Amino acid sequence: MQAFYTRHISLYRLTYEITVIIANERDMRKSMKKFIKFVFDKYQQIKDYKGNR
Q: For the segment 27-49, what is each residue's pLDDT rounded down to a tens digit?
């Protein structure tokens, strides 16, 4: 149950952070670059976390 709850929260946080990034960037091209980098960083973090367990 705890794992599900944690995953749920992180998903919500991820959505929130993405929304903030898009809202803060007026220039859409720069926003997309930042967004892709952000997603890639998160993906790396998750991969590292799964690998280290």
A: 667 777 888 888 888 888 877 77
Report d(CA 19, CA 26) in Å as an integer.
13
Query: What is the pTM assigned to this prediction?
Result: 0.39
Whole-angstrom Cα distance, residue 38 to residue 52? 21
Any idea where the domains of the chain sit in the sequence?
Answer: 2-52
Cα 19-20-26 angle, rounded to 5 deg: 100
Per the CB < 8 A criterion, the answer to whether 21 and 35 are in contact is yes
Residue 1 CA from chain centroid, whole number:
22
Nearest to 22 by CA among 7, 6, 11, 38: 38
